[in-house]
Amino acid sequence: MSSPFYLLEKISFTRKIMEDEYKKRAKQIVKRISPFIDKKEKILDIGTGTGFVAKGIMEAKNKNITCIDVRLNPLCKSIPVIIYDGKKLPFPDESFDTSLLIAVLHHCKKPLSVLDEAIRVSSKRIIIMEDLFESPVEKWLTLIEDSIVNWEFKGHPHSNKTEAGWFNVFKNRKFNVLHFEKFRLICAGFPFRLGIFVLEKKKAKSNMRQYARE
């Protein structure tokens, strides 16, 4: 059965509104993550969604991007997307220089398994963007707003974590946090507190280099 998001896409005026909102959001995201993407690297975009972030990176920085998701988003029609089972990425170890997980992990029932797969196929870094909250009230507002913006009311696991929760997850992985920043973004009229984490594969003695707060 189609979700309300997919049904709304068939209505022309709602499609235009949705496209405009996601394009504006993608433009801001691309601007923030582009400094950490090399023009010559192989990039994997896990959970491509609308494809606007991937397309923005292709146009501004790097055309060598492979896109993969569990299903094809109806707004994503300009770039090819590999469909997979959401469990094991169909690529050998360290197939890509950098992997992207942009607003993906909180939509996953097993986010740490998805993260570990991204780590497995990445040789240099992983760029993650996640919704953040700093109080119980903000948490519930974030969950409600996320469901509305994505039209995902049933089956959404809401695997959200706090800033400290994500840092605790990364601490036990093979990557260190190279860069972290928080910012606010308006999407479809709703305010979101977001965090970007740039993870770098651990070297002999690697420490966090940058830590930016709003």
UniProtKB/TrEMBL annotation:
InterPro entries with a match to the protein in the record: Methyltransf_11 (IPR013216), SAM-dependent_MTases_sf (IPR029063)
Pfam families xrefs: Methyltransf_11
Superkingdom of origin: Bacteria
Name this protein carries in UniProt: Methyltransferase type 11 domain-containing protein
GO molecular function: S-adenosylmethionine-dependent methyltransferase activity
Domain Methyltransferase type: 44-121
UniProt organism field: Candidatus Woesebacteria bacterium RIFCSPHIGHO2_12_FULL_42_9
